[in-house]
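Side project, low priority. Logging it here so it doesn't get lost.
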Amino acid sequence: MNVRNVLVFACGVSAVFGAAALAQQSGREAQGAPEQPAMQLPAGWTEADMEACMLAGIPGEMHAELMKSVGVWHGKGSMWMGAGMDPMSVECTNTITSTMDGRYIVLDMQSEVPGMGAFTGHGIYGFDNTTQKLVGSWIDNYSTGIMQGEGTLSADRKVITMSFRYTCPITKKPATMREVETITGPNSRTLEMFATDPKSGKEYMMLRYELTRKS
């Protein structure tokens, strides 16, 4: 665990205990119980520091936007193994659920890739209140690495653009994969994935799905 993670963990733990202490204190006051000693802050901390930690963990407007995608989605589309190649027809089922009291959504994807067999993917998406960016991670049964990404929501709240980082197995160098999700209606959207050709270094469309939410 690096220094940043240690600090974030410590901040989160302190925020959790602080919130719990405040809730317990309110409960005691409501029941007329004797007041308990105030919680002591870590050395050098201020009330503003504690408030910043607590605000970082509270779901907000952007988390509510993510919750709008909860459901089961069926997708039909095309997949390209490389730039200029003929597309292959593919289908998928994406099951999206809410977790951690509305702080994140979890995406479980099931598909079948021609010539390669069953594909299973698992992603976690959220909005980091501290960085003010969408964040995500992805694993699947075609790889052994974990992709990490971040992105933004367009001003009209119809397009989510994510950029995922991974190590290319061919070049052994860092590479990116771009994901663009466009909301076309309450129960419809498109998902496009763009990869970088390891030989030419140029980006090409790797996957495109038309997704419809099941009623």
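Brief comment: The chain has a mean pLDDT of 88.
Revisit when time allows.
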